[in-house]
Amino acid sequence: MKTGIEYEDSLRKLNLQVFLFGKKVANVVDDPIIRPSMNAVKLTYELAEKPEYEDLMTVTSHLTGKKINRFTHIHQTTEDLVKKTKMERLLGAKSGCCFQRCVGMDALNALSITTYNIDKKYGSDYNSRFLRYLEYVQEEDLVCDGAMTDPKGDRSLPPHQQADPDLFLRVVEEREDGMVVRGAKAHQTGALNSHEIIVMPTISMGEKDKDYAVSFALPSDAQGITYIYGRQSCDTRKLEKGTIDRGNQCYGGHEALVVFDDVFVPWDRVFLFKEFEFAGELVENFASYHRQSYACKVGVGDVLIGASQVAAEYNGVHKVSHIKDKIIEMNHLNETLFCGSLACACEGSRQPSGTYLVNTLLANVCKQNVTRFPYEIARLAQDIAGGLMVTMPAEDDFNSPDVGHWLRKYYAASSSASVENRMRILRLIENITLGTAAVGYLTESMHGAGSPQAQRIMIARQVNMDEKKKTAKHLCGIVE
Amino acid sequence: MKTGIEYEDSLRKLNLQVFLFGKKVANVVDDPIIRPSMNAVKLTYELAEKPEYEDLMTVTSHLTGKKINRFTHIHQTTEDLVKKTKMERLLGAKSGCCFQRCVGMDALNALSITTYNIDKKYGSDYNSRFLRYLEYVQEEDLVCDGAMTDPKGDRSLPPHQQADPDLFLRVVEEREDGMVVRGAKAHQTGALNSHEIIVMPTISMGEKDKDYAVSFALPSDAQGITYIYGRQSCDTRKLEKGTIDRGNQCYGGHEALVVFDDVFVPWDRVFLFKEFEFAGELVENFASYHRQSYACKVGVGDVLIGASQVAAEYNGVHKVSHIKDKIIEMNHLNETLFCGSLACACEGSRQPSGTYLVNTLLANVCKQNVTRFPYEIARLAQDIAGGLMVTMPAEDDFNSPDVGHWLRKYYAASSSASVENRMRILRLIENITLGTAAVGYLTESMHGAGSPQAQRIMIARQVNMDEKKKTAKHLCGIVE
Amino acid sequence: MKTGIEYEDSLRKLNLQVFLFGKKVANVVDDPIIRPSMNAVKLTYELAEKPEYEDLMTVTSHLTGKKINRFTHIHQTTEDLVKKTKMERLLGAKSGCCFQRCVGMDALNALSITTYNIDKKYGSDYNSRFLRYLEYVQEEDLVCDGAMTDPKGDRSLPPHQQADPDLFLRVVEEREDGMVVRGAKAHQTGALNSHEIIVMPTISMGEKDKDYAVSFALPSDAQGITYIYGRQSCDTRKLEKGTIDRGNQCYGGHEALVVFDDVFVPWDRVFLFKEFEFAGELVENFASYHRQSYACKVGVGDVLIGASQVAAEYNGVHKVSHIKDKIIEMNHLNETLFCGSLACACEGSRQPSGTYLVNTLLANVCKQNVTRFPYEIARLAQDIAGGLMVTMPAEDDFNSPDVGHWLRKYYAASSSASVENRMRILRLIENITLGTAAVGYLTESMHGAGSPQAQRIMIARQVNMDEKKKTAKHLCGIVE
Amino acid sequence: MKTGIEYEDSLRKLNLQVFLFGKKVANVVDDPIIRPSMNAVKLTYELAEKPEYEDLMTVTSHLTGKKINRFTHIHQTTEDLVKKTKMERLLGAKSGCCFQRCVGMDALNALSITTYNIDKKYGSDYNSRFLRYLEYVQEEDLVCDGAMTDPKGDRSLPPHQQADPDLFLRVVEEREDGMVVRGAKAHQTGALNSHEIIVMPTISMGEKDKDYAVSFALPSDAQGITYIYGRQSCDTRKLEKGTIDRGNQCYGGHEALVVFDDVFVPWDRVFLFKEFEFAGELVENFASYHRQSYACKVGVGDVLIGASQVAAEYNGVHKVSHIKDKIIEMNHLNETLFCGSLACACEGSRQPSGTYLVNTLLANVCKQNVTRFPYEIARLAQDIAGGLMVTMPAEDDFNSPDVGHWLRKYYAASSSASVENRMRILRLIENITLGTAAVGYLTESMHGAGSPQAQRIMIARQVNMDEKKKTAKHLCGIVE
């Protein structure tokens, strides 16, 4: 396994084409806007080095028997799934943001199932290709971007009917040694911190869409791939000198638009090729795994609850009954989210490939709550923080010889806290509820792994309404 | 194990002192008000006889190696805890009400832990006494009432300061062969359908309360015990001829006040005797188990969701988008409750006695949601059912030669349903949201196993706020 | 104006055909099931006699200049509308239930507008007919049932396509002296306590439905009208001797199915006859008035909040912070409902007829909240009340020489309250949240004056989305 | 009355001491960070010039009989109060942010009442002083900052017990011609755009705090006053070239810390001087007026709803049922807020001074909802907007010759919208839910005019619980 430092070094060797604020980024790893997101991924290596987290962060490969980072593992038991949930909460708490590596893990697991199932039907050899690829990922301890979301254009039309046929990623050429693809993947979390990019289709498809039914993996710096960096609320605070106003000192997340401009993929990296009827399965399984993965927000919730408690203590109000009650409510909601992720894990089941898949109904239930509760937790955090969180002057004012003394005088609250520390904790709450981390904690909680309505459709499909109706009729004496 | 019929027969042999509507009940088993609650307990025997439910309903005793009903089992693994959750959901769905037997199971499991722990400290032999008792319960396949809640009088005073010292159950005499107790236990679910009553203290206690720190088991018809039956919304509909208006044809629940008028308890039935410092542990463990047990409401929720879907179909509106969305929401909330019960089970842990205890934080989180979501599910059910549910004439009107034809004419809706069936399904929804079953599905969900505030206090105690604060401070650069 | 006693006497003179539990009711006024609902209507007379309520309960007729009961008034100003809101809250609080008289007031006001508008278009004389009728109602101080809701059969079909053409009320014969109608009106609140029944169509209609586009008024005991009484949760408690268990000692509400079996209506009582294009306007205006009328639930909420506070005091927990907070929340929600009813009143506007109509957008917003908040207020009331509310024995047990003393002993709580009074207040909370009054406070709040979706459709129609879109585009610099 | 241009010119004449990012601001009016907030205040002048808004924006002075801007008016009727609500909604919609001028209006009105009441008690002449001052404000058409919130230090201590006596603003010297004050006011909305600053105490006070019981008005550039500008989420986007990423093209709000460093106040500008027993009244009346003022957020809600609808249309999903339903819900919540502000206005009452004061119970209910619903509206807006809102590259990328074409290609959605316009509307939603305007729409909605708990305390105080208890007891037959 790589150390954190080796991970960082490995990224420096990549030749990524990244655009940010209209300019090509010369040094992606050290760019101050991007760097915090790399730090967060690096944590997934650093914690794996620590004995106290070994049980959660590492596991024995079912392929090689070697110790590997759990992010490259194919889940072999429900215990593996439960540990995944706990690992994600741990990292969310340690980083206070999106650490970006789960999407690749979820893509690998989903492909381990579907490549097997395709082979079963067609006698193809996708699964062995995939397992060779998996072994490479495990051996090199790589970060993979799991790239699913196409731009989608007119949402009411299937891929093949779009005005621009590239609005879903597709095969544009088929060669002896591989295929050429064109299109883009939007909202790609952690794309710039990845060694590999694993592409999957984004919806169920019919025969007419078969050119769009492709899945494959490429090095992130493959010829023809361009990354355009997404901007976030308060992103440029990371360019300011000083450290207080950025809230989170070290960590962040990012998303990017990834453009595939006629990119070549060799056949041994292709895991789905026009078997359109498997697109839906791949999407659903990936989505279910990824909906479980929102246990990470429980970890971010831990940070926000901790910050709120600190802010209350600094304000001297932590023993007031309504404050205590709000902290309880935040914890209650946060643990309810945890229950969802745990429950779909412990109810996981073995698939034909041997991979364990989460319970898909409960995974959708889990994610549906994630589209709601973080917003309420954030609201309560703002309630506890007080208005100062958004009316506080800049760090430069605190350091100003003209006005700094006034800020120190008038922003003194409880004697237990320095004004600077009070400012720091409020800036952290701002960061998670309005700033760069709010993108991950709120909006991504809404839309990541599928928008709320996507989960509702799955819930409707997966509950056994016939059984419920039958029981109800029986109890009230209806005979039909 | 007993069959359902043997269970019913065994109840007939009891000599219970029961009062209902001011009169002593001569035949408890066949009283039309009480009978449905017996039917619900009987289900716990009947399902255990069926092969398809064997895995959930039965288990191998760790004491005797024999096959026993899971309700008499001491959980030996987290898998046992998970199966408990699923068994409770199953029975909630099959009965559409409270089936009353889980409280005894939870009492047995809590005692298995605490008797062991007391012995560890004092070298006493409570645990072996308890295990002999347990073996008896398992061998005879008995229903136990777990009796915890004292009347409590003035809630701001501890037991020994109450104006009437009997407002908490206590030892009033200590003899060579046993002790004599006096007091009462309120809200006793399923008391009249129980062979045994297991008494526990209801709060943490200090030394001055030590006469109140007692736990023991007695036959339900022991000399000096009187039961006063609690009335429920719509209880007398069970006395009416006809079957439609009662909603649930067969099943119900009940609660009773149980008075102990100087009742003698032999020493081999005593499991806690004045070791006051263990009262709190016993209460908390019982409460945690019992908060998990609210998985039963997920089963009742299944019935209510099924009934709502049937009502929508009978009204011809089941394809309307807002109706579909409400059904999804009901399912989502219901499955969120299930997640809580599953999560605290799968995160259970082995206690010194070998018993597996649920995760107490998550058990409290589970129950806290149970104090909210059933009310919202019931509200949505009433939305879907329509106003007819509460304006519909009585069954006698449907059978009336004068007006029955008009009801059949004017209450015809979708051609797929007879008017009678439409009435039946609406009466079932009424039953669960306003009638006898609403007592269990709503009010008992609020207060059973502790009122909401009790869970909030436990949540506050059990989350690791120090860790959360530490993480938050670290992330924003606070050094203290 | 009539006194309460005169009102009761006037009802005795009616010859209503009423069926209850399958039998014809010989004496409607004194039937113990029905009586409490009459008492509630009677309150609308009794309070009008009292000087302290004169300002709210009475008003000067714009027709005759005489002092009349506000329930027979046509609103002449926004102040009238505001007083209507306050009168309804007052009566809700004084009765603790549905007092049934507002539906007729709302029908009169809606007809005052639409009859005028039809005449404007067709040169007909509906308005003068109506005003003569109104004068009669005012002079005699009558209670009118406003009958709108048809049985509706298959909800996906318009009236003329129903399998049974009578599922919406319609004209079946046109004579020189009047018309003959057939059909039924469901869910008729207070029908048996009414002197008059005013029929209106229930939906917008097209030309093919014109036989269904009728509005008229009849004496409630007109030949051919039959009432079939709707049963309510806990209705038969009113038949029990004793007074505690019924919760509300005096008052209740009722609904009935009203069947029109070829009933003759003279032309001077007809206010809409096949002018189908006015059906929608009449429905919408009536609905808007009636959605305002749900201010009555604020009054019932006052009772429930008061009862919860008393219960908390009797339990000795009224100073505990979470109890105080729940009482605040109940008040907050209740007053939010009041704000909605007040706001649509004070934003009312003059119609061509001179009648003041509430703001229809805000009236729908008001009612939409009524479909939610009473459920949450009821949930909080049950939280505060405690489980005893549903496990308490019957009044007969309290009076029993065998067990009464035990109940008095063990249900003693705070020394400030007798056990009987504690029981009384809990039975009142049960009455409003699960019993007869829950029908009005909960289910009728959901469906009365239109189910929630009906309001949502109206809200969608009435907000000015174009203006909002224009403003948004302008602010972000979109030029199209 | 001043025109918008005259207003801007008048600000240029002020000599304000403003610090921003640690530096003194040389030109406050043209500073790109501050400027949008000036634009928003300027709107209050510009709309007053337009005939279509004359009725809402202007009014006749009760002092001079001249036409004045409503922001300088003392409310003479409930109609005035209702128009205030509507003016605030209008301006919220026109600016999409906080327009800052209501706080001065609310201070003037609160002082008009309390100065009168003090005179009544003490025979002083505060009211005539105040009226002279008011006439000056009306004649000059001035913007006043209403400065209430002190830094407050340790929240558990009253002013006179604080470690630093300046943590509440106080009189430090009493001279023949006036007094000298020291302290600070935090969170001062619109301070830099004000001509005048009106200081009030922030809490009820006892005799020992009498030096803190002061109210007065000063020119905003009086000697000794310093402003330290509060930073907001995304504030520096206003420094970027380009216009898309700032979301709102023109308008914003601001808050500042205002330091009073031994500032002299002449007696004719002093409106409260140590009459400590009137501090509470002044605070409560100001708070009630200001809680009504949150009608402005309804206007911002209009913008957010409009933007969400536009985004849905650009995405081609505006006819999808769940999208329509979410728009309805946003409107419903928004109009519920409007109802609260209207209701407390129309229920206003005449005070001894002749001023009309809002109903204080309902004003608190109004504001309490404002601490909740905007968060839910914002959550729904993010749901509708989609994830692109937070993953979209910067405007510079759109203009980049390297990648701009790809953004235009892959972000094309519905043919009805250009990609640029799609970006614009999403940036506006980002602005209101995460960016500079989120400060006003969310956090200020939480804490402005008092944090949620402040309203809850007032609600508890102002409801008539005795009446409610009496009614409840009467209904269930309790006689005490």
UniProtKB/TrEMBL annotation, chains A, B, C, D:
Keyword line: FAD, Flavoprotein, Isomerase, Oxidoreductase
Gene3D superfamilies: 4-hydroxybutyryl-coa dehydratase, domain 1, Butyryl-CoA Dehydrogenase, subunit A, domain 2, Butyryl-CoA Dehydrogenase, subunit A, domain 3
Ranges where the HpaB/PvcC/4-BUDH N-terminal domain occurs: 3-272
Transmembrane as UniProt keyword: no
One Pfam family from the record: HpaB_N
Transmembrane feature ranges: none
InterPro entries: Acyl-CoA_Oxase/DH_mid-dom_sf (IPR046373), AcylCo_DH-like_C (IPR036250), AcylCoA_DH/oxidase_NM_dom_sf (IPR009100), HpaB/PvcC/4-BUDH (IPR004925), HpaB/PvcC/4-BUDH_C (IPR024719), HpaB/PvcC/4-BUDH_N (IPR024674)
Binding site for FAD: T189
Domain HpaB/PvcC/4-BUDH C-terminal: from-to ranges: 279-476
GO MF terms held by the record: isomerase activity; oxidoreductase activity, acting on the CH-CH group of donors
Protein known as: Vinylacetyl-CoA delta-isomerase
Source species: Desulfobotulus alkaliphilus
